[in-house]
Amino acid sequence: MLTSGKEGSTMASFFDSFTSQEIARIxxxxxxxxxxxxxxxxxxxxxxxxxxxxxxxxxxxRRDGTEIAQLGPGDIVGEAAIVGHTLRTxxxxxxTPLVAIHFTDADVNALLTELPSFREKVTAVVESRVTxxxx
Length: 135
Fold this sequence. Notes:
Strand content: 25-35%
Shape: globular
Largest sheet: 4 strands, mixed
Structural class: alpha+beta
Order of helices and strands: EHEEEEEHEEHH
Number of strands: 8
Helix content: 25-40%
Strand order of the largest sheet: 1-5-4-7
Distance between the termini: 15 Å
Radius of gyration: 14 Å
């Protein structure tokens, strides 16, 4: 099982490569939300209509009901199906209460077009999740 390895960190991974102006643009495109423990904001085999950047809390990534990863602050979830124009390949379940930035698929697609750095980072995240961690 993969884990984010960022317990206790704040916005460590996804935002690291962006300038403060880019972070402001990305954040402004979405909407800050709070989700309760046990909530499943993304379901396997459903259309790709939203993504989240986690600010606080931990989620379980589950495929066919089996946990395949845990992600936490600074991670993005839900992006792969939007980028790939596919149905969801996994469900996300909040293991703790969450604070996140919610993006619609239109928000994500606009950011992919408007910010080359966002497109590069999302593409890298998607590729790393498909191929697994580097050896």
